[in-house]
């Protein structure tokens, strides 16, 4: 306490001690995090670059943030929702708090559009403000001290939220891994599908397909193995399908629920962000099947419903109107076109790196191209690309230790920026 005493002042007859710090100890789990969240860190480096070189015309192939406008039929849906909120009838229908789990019509439409085989029913769908938020809320659902497995490399929110929620022991600087988190290495030698035996003790398995960052989409056979593994070991898979609409390979399912038995061992998150440009608008959903049960037989869905109603008040009614418009025939076609546009960007980037002499992965069933820089330190490659080309990419090691030696190029860009980026890269890096 002595060190905390900073100053005092007098109010009436009282002398109030003012402390420079509070008496609240820091959450030790926050203290375990080794670095800031990946994308703000990259942004900080980009801004430092701009301070040194204010005229640099930076092109971002970094964070997977959409760039194209939201298509007109979807905007129209939101405009009529906004106008409706200004009328007594419209406000009575959709104003104020909606159902915490999402508007019934939207849940029905998500079920029929994204799960056309009837594998998911509307009441198993919980509409939210996005996959990333749901991932953290799922961590809250399971509580601390779980054995967690992640693909390595994978979306950094899985590991960071695991650390924050108390699953991890300390960070090992030599392996660059947190203790008590199982890193399932995914690389070209195993076709980016991990050896599941390493996850035999894992209660929770995060699995993303197509994978962010490698772009690898798991096949039906691989997902069948994943489901069988989870069922044998009694684990729960948290399946991130945020990029599933980019899958073109018919052997690769767009949902884990296409696999028989997944309803007894999996939760799936998905989002409108990368399909319709909703990264800022925020709308996603999580499927928690009726048949998924905790060890004592209690319903996971019932607890999720309880948790969502306590921590969340439902997605914005305007965003939900946008979601509904995405699922009309016109909206669906426009969204499919948008995904197709970004896929073309991905194929331009992939071809460019290959023409330059680099080995690439992904970029076919995903909006990310995973480029091998032959074992070079990925932060060094990131810096070199930024300095030589004024291009921001994402260093592979930001997604886990197995990502070192790679960079990820995002296809979310205007076409002219993508083409300009390819020219700059070819000039500076052709082997
Ligand atoms: C990424 O760039 O990996 C992510 O898509 C960003 C995000 O969605 O949180």
TrEMBL record:
One of its GO terms (biological process) is systemic acquired resistance, salicylic acid mediated signaling pathway. GO terms for molecular function: pyridoxal phosphate binding; transaminase activity. Residues 94-420 form the Aminotransferase class I/classII large domain. Its cofactor is pyridoxal 5'-phosphate. InterPro entries: Aminotransferase_I/II_large, DapL/ALD1, NHTrfase_class1_PyrdxlP-BS, PyrdxlP-dep_Trfase, PyrdxlP-dep_Trfase_major, PyrdxlP-dep_Trfase_small. Keywords: Aminotransferase, Pyridoxal phosphate, Transferase. The keyword Transferase applies. NCBIfam families: DAPAT_plant. HAMAP family: DapL_aminotrans_1. Belongs to the class-I pyridoxal-phosphate-dependent aminotransferase family. LL-diaminopimelate aminotransferase subfamily. This is Ll-diaminopimelate aminotransferase chloroplast. The lineage of its organism: Eukaryota, Viridiplantae, Chlorophyta, Mamiellophyceae, Mamiellales.
